[in-house]
Amino acid sequence: MTSPFSQSIEPPAGKFLLAIESSCDETAAAVIDRDRRVLSSVVATQHELHERFGGVVPEIASRAHLERILPVIDEALRRSNMRLTDLGAIAVATHPGLVGSLLVGLTAAKTLALVLDIPLLAINHIEAHIYACRMAAGRDVFPAVGFVVSGGHSNLYDCVSPVEFELLGSTTDDAAGEAFDKVAQILGLEYPGGPQIEVIAKKGDPKAIHFPRTFLNDARLDFSFSGLKTAVLYAARGTPGARAQPLPLTPQRIADLAASFQAAVIDILIGKCDQALKRTGRNTLLVGGGVAANTLFRHRLNELASHRKIELIIAEREHCTDNAAMGALGWELWERGLTSPLDLDVKPGLVRNRNPA
Ligand code: KG4
Ligand code: ZN
Q1: Is the CB of 191 under 6 A from ligand 1?
Q2: Distance 188 CA to ligand 1 centre (A)
Q3: End-to-end CA distance of the chain
Q4: 16-131+322-354 and 138-319: identical CATH topology
Q5: CATH annotation of 16-131+322-354
Q6: Are 321 and 26 a contacting pair, CB within 8 Å?
Q7: Which regions of the chain are under pLDDT 70?
Q8: 191, 181 Cβ separation under 8 angstroms
Q9: Statement: 138-319 belongs to CATH 3.30.420.40
Q10: How far apart are CA 119 and CA 326, in angstroms?
Q11: What CA–CA distance (Å, rounded) separates 191 from 204?
């Protein structure tokens, strides 16, 4: 692969990669060796700061990153027993994400790269979520279908290699994790909503309410969750203009709504994975992102894999939600000479075609 910044320099022996992640509301740093072993991984979450708003407040997130970034990097070095001089390159998530949040990580990364005179590597946060599957497997897993199901994205890719991704489909409105968070808010549950819905759904009947499975029978590999979210809202609070009052939101009704919603989302996610596997003919499926921590989803993915006789690799639970260990993807860039210049900038929006800078 060629790039304007490509330098075919072999990473020096005995040096380590420091990865930094601050794309949303987690401040994280990790030290990773050449065999992709994670020597330390530190994640400082900000959930308590955003909880009362029911979602991430960008300005609060960037301020919190500013306070935490240096202690988090320090702690990652301390836990791995490394000094700054042991580092050979700095990888940092530069896209996509919240602009203010990304800038904090990038500024820290650039400063270290400049002071230590070592390469800077630009990490695509979504591709890193899929690379978490490479970490779980402990070996090369490409080519494959890659699926990122997070708070910000529901993206299906044909992953030709760790650094060549073709987007097959994405959401036309809300991401799957975002739908979990918004439905949790409707049901009066805490933020982030995914884990709360998962727990409460265990006490509910997934067949109690039939929610729409948008695009499930459509040939395109895109998603839409906003109709489903509105359907839950109307089921919980009543349809505007309708005479019938909604059933009271008892704990059992909340559990039934949560279970029925979760079943609908997972049916859609599994259906689209199946279509993507058929379309690409790939026989490996990689799944990462926060929603991949969901037990029912993991179970249904395993059923799909046995049915289609394909290899399934799901990121380890601790590497499903945002973390810096998945920035081990930086090794792939470094080994290919895909380093970035010090005037590197963040790209908050989703980059459809890979751009190494
Ligand atoms: O990957 P992630 O940490 O952040 C983004 O890059 O967006 O994903 C966070 C999302 C949140 O929407 C959260 O509700 C969802 O992942 N999530 C879950 C579960 N754990 C986290 N959704 C469903 N079930 C879970 N167990
Ligand atoms: Zn993420």
Answers
A1: no
A2: 18
A3: 13
A4: yes
A5: 3.30.420.40
A6: yes
A7: 1-9, 350-357
A8: yes
A9: yes
A10: 18
A11: 20
